[in-house]
Known about the structure:
Layout: H1 6-19, H2 25-40, H3 50-53
Amino acid sequence: MQHKSWPALCESLLDRLETLGADTTTERAEFGVLMVDCCMKDCGADLRPKSAQMGGEPK
């Protein structure tokens, strides 16, 4: 089992809820605010697009 980062875990859980028909609009907005707040406090989260994190060209 590969361990996910907490942002990836949250995203995965929201995706699963949406697959079951849940409206996660509010939760996704709150998650975005928490991520920005975390980054402003130097938590180490990387908000760059995944391609840029992996050394690729952003789309």
